[in-house]
Amino acid sequence: MKLISSFALLNAALLLLEVSSCGRVRAEQELPTASSIETITGSWPVSRRLPQTVSPSIPEEVLKDLDMQTAVRLAEERNPVILENFQSFKAAQDSLGSDFATWWPVLSFNLNFGNYNQNSYYNYAGANSGIDTSIYSDYGASASDLPSYLFARSYTSSYLQGVQTLDLNWKIYDPARQPQIWKGKYLVKEAGSDYVISRRDYALQTQQAYVRLQKFLASILTSEQLVENDLLLLDLAKSRKKLGVSSELDVAKQLTVLRTDQVNLVNSKSSSMVAQAELAALLNDPRANKINPSEALSPLGSWQVSIDETIDSALDYRQVIVKNLSIAQQNEMQAQIDLAIYRPTIELVNSLYWTKNLGFPSSGSPWIIETGRSDFWNSESVIQVTLTGFDGGRARMDASASRKRAKSAQAAAQQSINSVIEEVREYFSQSVEGREALIVASQRVQAASTALKLQSLRFNAGYGTITDVVQSQQDLTQAVESYISQLSDYNLALVNLSRASGLTFAADPGLAQKVGDPLSELGLTSILRRAKNSFNSDG
Fold it and tell me: What is the pTM assigned to this prediction?
């Protein structure tokens, strides 16, 4: 029984120990807070620093009257992504220069110089000399007659030594050199394409952001005018209610229209702030908050080039095609580099080796006990031929993989051609059809504005209902929103097509005349104020 009790106590102790160890493991696995980690590493310096040359802020007078061409120029000069791609292009050029440098011999120099000391001791005589003194006993010689160095048990030396090597190696023939140079050329071409693409893309993004900012600013102005109209119509409805010719329902309907236009105004202001932030980031001046386009939203022009000419220009202009073709050529060159190990490399190897010693070695007389000097020269000049006879087919498989990557890049180039043509056709259709849609949208605004004015006059004269006026207000709001969207979409289609093809749109005075300025005819102030004054005088 005592034995059973002992085992029970032992099991209980082990169980308790296991539970406590599990608790410690869970405690160790608890994640620390972010502030505790920051406290540990907060004082350690980091290598990431802001560039020493930071672009200065753009003057406010420029931003307050900013035209599209100036915005594009500033983006191309200041945008960090463009600068990044430019530095990558310069780096690719330097790498190509490094590839060309393999034509030249390599001269290397190495010098080692320092102090060397040695102390040794043995517990038997003759260790330093390596001669057993017992051999002299056969000749009847006594120990006193023998040289003292034969019995030396210690050795001491201290000297300065300089070792100098001078190597001159020149690869007379390197089968990988020429394809490596051409690969470097295609890498430069790819980096150049990236730089050109970034300039064009950010110019396009700047134009798009500029047009969107124009759009939302136009929405703010028109929404303010519509809200002013709604307030006047609401006052008119309230005046008619006082006279008993309108009901509370009429006032509620008019108030609903007012709140709708007020919401549109708030949304337009919010969107304009977002558009300003987007444009400021593209200009690399993210803190700029007072950007105002110098031009109001209006048609930029029209596209006057045929679809076939536009496509042909795009195929010659788009660097994405050139980039994919450059990648294909890089992989073709890499395949030749991979296979170059099976061909001999001929190298001229020249080497000069010189060692000089100056010091004090001594183990007693008659060994050298004064300063010793020594010079050692060695030179060689040989032709070295190296090649790989067998590597298990590794180089061939690497070359095969490179050729397959080249075919993949060629397929990507073909796909990019298809994408370019598709983009051009899409933007061309938007430009051509958008021109007609813009004219119709302008006419719709003019018609809706005229209808609201006439309906307001009829309502003021006692004809029709407030529902007719509200419907006219809603029609005008929708017409204005549609016109602003059509105009901004049309301008975006023009800049997109210009970016896609490398061509530019032309000014179109005829289109400007047909479109006119319908947003300037939205006001009902003079009409409704006269109506309100007449009601107040009647009341």
Answer: 0.77
